[in-house]
Automatic annotation (TrEMBL):
Pfam families: GTP_cyclohydroI. HAMAP family: FolE. GO terms for molecular function: GTP binding; GTP cyclohydrolase I activity; zinc ion binding. Its EC number is 3.5.4.16. Pathway: Cofactor biosynthesis; 7,8-dihydroneopterin triphosphate biosynthesis; 7,8-dihydroneopterin triphosphate from GTP: step 1/1. It catalyses: GTP + H2O = 7,8-dihydroneopterin 3'-triphosphate + formate + H(+). The keyword GTP-binding applies. InterPro entries: GTP-CH-I_C/QueF, GTP-CH-I_N, GTP_CycHdrlase_I, GTP_CycHdrlase_I_CS, GTP_CycHdrlase_I_dom. This is GTP cyclohydrolase 1. The keyword Nucleotidyltransferase does not apply. One of its GO terms (cellular component) is cytoplasm. Gene3D superfamilies: 1.10.286.10, 3.30.1130.10. The gene is folE. It comes from the Bacteria.
Length: 207
């Protein structure tokens, strides 16, 4: 599977910031607007600053976040599960938001990672142009490569704005994807237990 290319490996030369802002002026004219009217004069700069945030993942190496591991885990040998990690991405077909949640589980093999780093990995891949299937697989593969755990599972549920605000206009449709690696794939009982844990009702005090 191809992964989203980091900025430094991009096949085409990076335009200057001014060229990027000019492209926004072109789009403003395309939709019938006057880029010189007062309210729009600074919009190209604002849009490009927004792009810096939306697509910051191209400047991040997710494996860096997983490089600090902890090995003093006692004999902990059960799943580590993070549920409901919110993410914001953009679909690569229409460049409009995909908003959803990721659930991550891994079965450690003597090594664990700081839990915030898993959310950072999600961010590093989500803040690129994506399709959900690839986002799911990339998160799972990164954890698998970095931690070499006994198993990894990633579940994503999301809302694709390209289906709700345009095109087929179907609000309320959610897309679910999953990537299961290692024991979660090969051991049906473990998988079933995991799915029951991940999709169990949330404890009231954690809401
Ligand atoms: N598999 C997959 N499809 C996606 C994802 N995000 C958006 N899409 C779909 O990508 C497809 C692109 O289809 P095209 O026919 O090339 O584009 P389009 O003419 O804009 O299609 P419509 O959205 O049906 O109007 C659409 O069916 C989208 O719903 C995603 O994460 N995964
Ligand atoms: Zn789309």
């Amino acid at each position: 599977m191809t992964t989203s290319p980091p900025k430094k490996n991009r096949p085409t030369a990076t335009p200057t910031r001014t060229e990027a802002e000019d492209a926004i002026r072109t789009l403003l004219r395309w939709i019938g607007e006057d880029p010189e009217r007062e309210g729009l004069q600074e919009t190209p700069q604002r849009v490009i600053r927004s792009y810096d945030e939306f697509f910051e993942g191209y400047n991040q190496d997710p494996l860096d976040y997983l490089s600090r591991v902890f090995e003093e885990v006692g004999n902990y040998n059960e799943s580590v599960i993070l549920r409901d990690i919110r993410f914001e991405s953009h679909c690569e077909h229409h460049m409009v938001p995909i908003i959803g949640i990721v659930h991550i589980a891994y079965l450690p093999n003597k090594r664990v990672v700081g839990i915030s780093k898993l959310a950072r990995v999600v961010n590093a891949y989500a803040r690129r142009l994506q399709i959900q299937e690839r986002l799911t697989a990339e998160i799972a593969n990164a954890i698998h490569t970095a931690l070499q755990p006994q198993g990894v599972a990633v579940f994503i549920e999301s809302d694709h704005h390209c289906m709700t605000t345009r095109g087929v206009h179907r609000p309320g449709v959610s897309m679910s994807t999953s990537t299961l690696l290692g024991k979660y794939k090969t051991d049906p009982a473990l998988r079933q237990e995991l799915i029951a844990q991940i999709f169990a009702p949330r404890t009231a005090f954690l809401r």
